[in-house]
Design a protein that fits this description.
alpha+beta; Immunoglobulin-like; 4 domains; six-stranded mixed β-sheet; five-stranded mixed β-sheet; 10 helices
Length: about 475
């Protein structure tokens, strides 16, 4: 009897333990109900629906993101970011990028627990990372990055001593790239000259290069006629202003651009063995009287707009502060002497309406007309002819139609060669009352046609 009671008691106890264990499994663990708080660990907890694909991997990713969000980014008072206090946009972007890279590069974390909520179709994961271990790994990574950056920094200094300016700038940017994830940290390193902060020192060295590079145009002001090429090229001298004196900069890439006006010129050039860069202006295409060409250091090999670190490089290279010089162009229109003949309905006409309209249109776009044939560069011979067309009649109207042809010939006075020959044909004028009113409209239409067809062709001339 006693033996049977003992067996019954054991069986009941096992059953009770099994039931309580099963019930416990159904209940959520404490870390699900109440998020743990720890001074020793960063904690990441996430829950996902089991209905989604790869829900376990998704839960891990979300938990690690949650863990990384606990790691605050504190900008050191000795960091290079204080150099750019006004650039709050970059600071925000930097913090966002650091937060993203933290998730991608997290190491040393451990899975504490997971919970499969069968009833709620949820899956939970709980990760943690030792704060001490994380700080140690960050220090190791920072020291490694600083060592790489210091090597680039020293190579940049060597290139600077050799006056290889672009390579020096390139290696200063490589140094920044090596520590780009740690711009919020103190980037101080020991050198033979003492302790320096890599971030602030690189910025200073780049600014020092800009101060010592001098660009000087051989001719600052140049007179040129519109749509003509300059036979002699632009020359710009590049010097390095050292404490001991000036030195020529050889092989320095320069970039030329119109900042006012427009034209066709060789935009990318390099200085020769004597420090001179040469660029040829093919043609000025703008109508502006005063035009300006800017010559500056060509940073395109280092500063690339499609580079993911473009904004970072731009902050350190500060292209707006890079050395520049300007060449001013005094653009003169070609001096033209005009010959004009006009026939209306088979007779010579002494009207000046069309002549003055054509002269005004060409003055605004191309020529400076003169009454002194000897001072002119070209002779413009314009011949026009207007003929009567039909008269269209209706019940309550009568319309007179005329047709105008206009011929252009341009001759270079110096060579005597005809350099341009073109025409517009059958420009129609339609008006009631009389043919004379139709002629007036044909004149108006002719000026518009000249603007649209003749002027663009004249602008393409290389005189």
């Amino acid at each position: 009897m006693i033996k049977l009671l003992r067996l019954f008691f054991c069986f009941s106890l096992i059953t009770l333990l099994f039931v309580s264990t099963s019930f416990a499994r159904k209940r959520p663990p404490k870390w699900v109900k109440n998020r743990p708080v720890s001074s020793e660990y960063y904690i990441g907890i996430a829950v996902v629906s089991k209905n989604v694909e790869n829900y376990m991997q998704l839960a891990k990713n979300k938990a690690l993101q949650d863990l990384a969000s606990q790691i605050s980014i504190k900008i050191s008072s000795n960091s290079v970011l204080h150099q750019f206090e006004d650039n709050t946009g970059f600071k925000e972007e930097f913090e966002s990028q650091v937060q993203t890279s933290l998730v991608q590069e997290l190491e040393g974390y451990e899975l504490v627990a997971s919970w499969n909520n069968k009833r709620g179709k949820e899956y939970w994961e709980y990760y943690r990372l030792s704060k001490k271990q994380f700080a140690l790994m960050q220090r190791l990574k920072l020291n490694k990055a600083k060592k790489i950056a210091q090597n680039y920094f020293e190579e940049a200094q060597e290139y600077e001593k050799k006056l290889n300016i672009i390579q020096a700038l390139n290696y200063y940017i490589k140094a920044i790239d090596a520590v780009k994830k740690y711009l919020d940290e103190d980037l101080s390193v020991m050198t033979f000259g003492g302790s320096i902060n890599l971030g602030t020192e690189i910025y200073k060295r780049i600014q020092n290069i800009y101060k010592r590079v001098e660009l000087v145009p051989v001719k600052k002001n140049i007179k040129i006629e519109i749509s003509t090429s300059i036979k002699e090229p632009f020359l710009v001298k590049a010097n390095w202003i050292a404490d001991s004196g000036e030195n020529e900069l050889v092989g320095l890439p320069l970039n030329l651009n119109f900042v006012t006006g427009a034209g066709i010129l060789n935009k990318s050039v390099k200085t020769d063995e004597f420090g001179y860069a040469s660029s040829q202006l093919t043609r000025v295409t703008s109508k502006q009287k005063l035009q300006k060409i800017e010559v500056g250091l060509d940073l395109s090999s280092i500063l690339k707009a499609d580079d993911e670190d473009y904004e970072l490089c731009k902050m350190f290279l500060t292209p707006d502060l890079s050395p520049k010089c300007h060449i001013t162009l005094n653009v003169e229109r070609l001096k033209a002497y005009m010959l004009f003949s006009e026939k209306i309905f088979g007779e010579d006409s002494k009207r000046s309406i069309l002549k003055n309209a054509i002269k005004k249109e060409l003055s605004e776009n191309f020529f400076s007309f003169t009454e002194d044939k000897d001072s002119a560069n070209v002779i413009l011979d314009v011949k026009t002819n207007v003929i009567k067309g039909e008269i269209k009649k209706g019940r309550n109207y009568k319309v007179h139609i005329v047709y105008l042809d206009c011929f252009f010939s341009l001759t270079d006075i110096k060579s005597g060669f005809e350099i341009f020959n073109d025409a517009i044909y059958e420009v129609k004028g339609m008006k009631p009352v009389s043919y004379n009113y139709a002629v007036k409209e044909a004149y108006e239409q002719a000026v518009e046609e000249i603007h649209n067809t003749i002027i663009p062709k004249l602008n393409q001339l290389d005189l």
